[in-house]
Amino acid sequence: MKQRLRAGDRSQICYMGHTAHGAAASEREAEMKVKPIAEVLEYLAPAAEETGVEIVDAAWNMRERSLTIWIDAEEGVDLNLCERFHHAADALLDELDPTFGAAYTLNCSSLGLDRPIKTDRDFLRRLHEQVEVHLYAPVDGKKEYEGELLSFNEETFTILTDKGERTFERAKAAKVCLAIRV
Questions:
Q1: Same structural domain for residues 80 and 16?
Q2: Taking burial as the number of CB atoms within 10 A of a residue's CB, which of 14, 19, 29, 153 is the most buried?
Q3: Are residues 39 and 101 in the same domain?
């Protein structure tokens, strides 16, 4: 089934896959044993290359018995690209059997505009864009800042606010995300 998901006013594209081969629905309450995400992502590298996407993140949801894979592409991600990647990944996952025979749903999704910026790749992707910074503790009396992301390294990142450049420790930022104007 295809559907467009909305998180408030911030939309993302998602392709909700079929339930994969595996155990019957009556076993849904049983604990699901799964292969580690790193192993799954390594196995899916050919599907990403074939469809021209970057796999940005993935997560198991044990309660929903699903695997969600977030993708990105230079030209952006639309429903057709999610669907193409989903079909390529589905064939490989049937071979890998990441749930050891248990039924699960494979979901393929765009990042969504409100996705947190966490990794070096995330920071690189958002260089020179407006970001919001939410801190665990106030700096100069404020816990929230907004500005253009100028640079980053392993420990810090720098933004240009309306009052000048500010450098923050990555470990002290509760959340960094794209600033969205509606």
A1: yes
A2: 14
A3: yes
* Assigned token pair, 155: 């420990």
| Residue pair 102/64 in contact by the 8 Å Cβ criterion | no
How does pLDDT run across 17-42, given as a tens digit for each residue?
Answer: 654 545 444 444 457 899 999 999 99
**Better-scored residue on pLDDT, 10 or 154:** 154
The residue out of 89, 110, 131 marking a domain boundary is: 110
Both tokens assigned to 51: 């469809």
State the pLDDT at residue 55. Answer: 94
Check: pTM over 0.90? Answer yes or no. Answer: no
Q: How far apart are CA 99 and CA 21, in angstroms?
A: 10
Closest to 126 measured CA to CA, from 152, 108, 102: 152
Q: What percent of the chain shows pLDDT beyond 70?
A: 84
Tell me the residue type at 60: W
Residues 17 and 103 reside in one and the same domain: yes
Largest CA distance in the chain: 59
Residue 54, domain extent: 2-110
Residue 156 CA to residue 177 CA, distance in Å, equals 15
- What DSSP state is assigned to residue 51? H
